[in-house]
Amino acid sequence: MQGIPFLQYEMIKGSRKVLLDYCGTLSLEHFTAAHPQFGKGGSIRNLLVHICNTYQSWIGKYGLEQEIEFTPFGSIENVDDARQLFASIDLLVADYLERYTDMNEEVRRDDIRTTALQFFTHVITHEFHHKGQILSLSRHWGYTPVDTDIMR
Fold it and tell me: Per the CB 3.0–4.6 Å rule, which of 49, 64, 103, 108 could disulfide with 117?
């Protein structure tokens, strides 16, 4: 595996590690509980699982054409479980980047026809969108978020 998408994903994993390490400092109650003033009752845990389910869908199911069993929110009980789930996502992305060495290759999801690069870009920007929500939600719980930008 090589090239810019691989290097980019390595930076994303570094940023994700900072986020998961930070999540490890939160109480288990705040990690799993929905905040009444945040969105539609989302929790930090549920947002992390949602990020993984999106990788499973776009990269695994559609990009790699694999049979994927999506992860239920309740199956992730703590941050270590989330780390293990993301480790499985890392393997999925590695397979994807090995498969699509030409990121201009066409990939399909139902009636969407696009490139491997657009699929990859979709899932990584989706992760960062929800990472921001996770940090905001932690602030609602009274924590001070850490800097999880790629460039720190």
Answer: 103
